[in-house]
Amino acid sequence: MLKSSISQLPITNQEAVKGSEIRTSIFSLIREKHPAFDQDSILSLDELNAFRRMYLKQLMEQEKGELAQIDLDVMTAIQHNAILSENIEPEMEATLTRGQKLADMIASFGGSWTFILSFFSFLMIWMAVNVWVLSSKPFDPFPFILLNLILSCLAAIQAPIIMMSQNRQEQKDRLRAEHDYKINLKAELEIKLLSEKIDHLLVHQNKKLLEIQDVQIDYLEDLMKKIGQQPPRA
């Protein structure tokens, strides 16, 4: 059984990869970590995949500088074959306080037709009561100073509540954007890894095909020699 030139662990022939079959950039990275590794050395496919992930990390660091936490999460997910796609809505809702939930409810109600029609009806009833029903002694005569005070207080209270809800919505949108970025980045890196693996498989298959052709050529040469050695028939 073969042994890995890096870990010295036994590996099967199917998992063995020669240094000559590895892409130049990744081969250079392996040589940096293990100077004794050469074109004739072998390593396992799992070890090669680990160096491929290390190479992708170096590419990201060269492109972006120091990796942010969001990029480190993606690299960790790739190394552990973890899934990043998940429903983040329940997690976001679980972290809301009572005040934030109340602000969202008020903002949702304040931006609905139910609130508009209800408030418009309230205004009509208020003015009708003070103009016609209590025309002799209205509690808020025209120009409805008390009503204006109520409207001003309502606007003053409603505006910061709506802003609180908008801030919560911005936080949700930012979390969704980060989540989408993680998924897109992981997909891009996984595609690069798949490209590396496909290239390796193509090289390996081409070498196998060439070996098969060489064996077939040897068979043909042997047959030609045997035919040439046979005496001619009368």
Automatic annotation (TrEMBL):
Keywords: Membrane, Transmembrane, Transmembrane helix. Pfam families: DUF1003. The chain crosses the membrane at residues 106-129, 141-164. PANTHER family: INTEGRAL MEMBRANE PROTEIN-RELATED (PTHR41386), MEMBRANE PROTEIN (PTHR41386:SF1). This is DUF1003 domain-containing protein. It comes from Phnomibacter ginsenosidimutans.
